[in-house]
Amino acid sequence: MFHGSMVALVTPMREDGAVDDTSLAALIEFHIDQGTDAIVAVGTTGESATLDEHEHCDLIRRVVEMTAGRIPVIAGTGANSTTEAITLTRCALKAGADACLLVTPYYNKPTQEGLYLHHKAIAEAVPIPQILYNVPGRTAVDMLPDTVERLSKVSNIVGLKEATGNLQRAREILDRCGERLDLYSGDDATGCEFMLLGGKGVISVTSNVAPAAMHNLCVAAMAGDRARAEAIDAPLRALHRDLFVEANPIPVKWALHEMGLIPLGIRLPLTPLSAQYHATVREALRQAGVL
Fold first, then answer.
1. For residue 191, which phi and psi values (nearest 5 degrees)?
2. Bridge partners of residue 25, in order along the sequence
3. In a domain, 47, yes or no
4. What is the pLDDT of residues 152-188, one digit of tens each?
5. Any idea which residues carry the catalytic annotation?
6. Which of 66, 150, 265, 286 is at 20 to 30 A from 252, Cα to Cα?
7. Residue 264 lies in a domain
């Protein structure tokens, strides 16, 4: 349903932490001009954890309005409360989002049965295409292939963002339910190989700063052109690594500021990129040809 380079969009903020609408509109135009295939708004990279419910819903609405149907908008609406996730998903449906991305319930550490019932309840409550999001490094819960396969039978669960970086896991899920679910890499470092295995794209942090290259990488990898895909990916590898020298989205927001695209604002408890990493991230941007 959704294929290619899908940017996990940052939320531009002024230095007082207020959302910067002007920079947000400019970023959306930048991505459309550079060939990004879809915008994923208000996910982890968009600092969803520091937005209140009103801000979250309002930001989805504004991204949908600014995008104006030119590329799909996938709204991050996951939460560790099932009722809150349903509320946010309803907001996204009302705002006109094309789909929702639902992270596994963080901090609670539910069982596999709890994960199944959580996502099933959201899917049944809100008739919008939904993409599961497994990122155990941030949530302290891992959605196992058995649970993914069970959820793939729910009609409006259409995809999975698998962010473990485990390619053997990706192969297993593709074998089990690749006919029913579109699988997306949530790990830029292994995204190229993930797509060569049969994944339908990447929900990417790197796409924030190198959107044209990431689009071209996805086109080549999904076409099975290994040589071209690896050649495009090679100068991006430092970005895939160094945009995580501190917790995402700290480095990528600093990188976008360095490129002149957004202010430095970020909300506590996150802080601006430590000075010791400035040269590292700057060099990664240079290697990618975007600075």
1. -60, -40
2. none
3. yes
4. 999 999 999 999 999 999 999 999 998 999 999 999 9
5. 133, 161
6. 66
7. no
